[in-house]
Basal-body rod modification protein FlgD (Zymomonas mobilis subsp. pomaceae), 230 residues
Amino acid sequence: MSTTSSVSGQSYINQLSTGSSSSATTTSSSSDPTAALSSTDFLKLLTTQLQYQDPDSPVDDTQMAAQMAQFSSVAGINQMNTTLSSIQSDVSNSRLSNASDWIGKAALVSSNTVTSVDGIFAGQVALDSSAADVKISLADSTGKVVYSQDYGSQSAGNVSFSFSGTDSNGDTVSGPLSVKVNATNSSGGSVSSSTSTWTMVNAVNSPASGTTQIVTSLGTYDPSDITSIS
């Protein structure tokens, strides 16, 4: 590391930060010239400045206090980043632990398809507004309706449905089944709705990079997409 014997006027650190050409130089602990200064690099620069300052024009107390405050801030930010990283890791582990408890349970997810949970096909239809009549039907892969129920007049909100899994002939339905909703108002117009169904949670995927995924009989969902667990 080569240096000159004096640095006058602007402080050495200030000259570096503003890109001013100064003959006083130092070598960063990082081999990457574009890397940000670490707290160790900062301390080296500060001590080098004190060692080679011009005795006839030393760095004044105000500059020194400002540089020490800056060093303190850098150290504090580094410590905060370490703490936040630790907290983030703890939260991620906690979320994974909570999600793993869902395996083997039923989850309510947004879907127009319903699968069997212990032999029962169930879900709910969310009506955007009141309906004079609501009819919910379930159909198999061939389009055959295996369940149909008229729920009559319903207020805005959730209308739950449940099918035992046995059709009118007494045959067991395997599924999955498509959910069809016909909701109308007093004028005969359609009432908007959305459907959620219950499905079994089979596994939880937690890749090294990326978000935790819940694997269900209907597919893969983010934990935030799970409306309810039973």
Notes: The CA atoms of residues 84 and 170 lie 59 Å apart. The longest strand covers residues 193-205. The mean pLDDT is 77. The two ends are 67 Å apart (CA to CA).
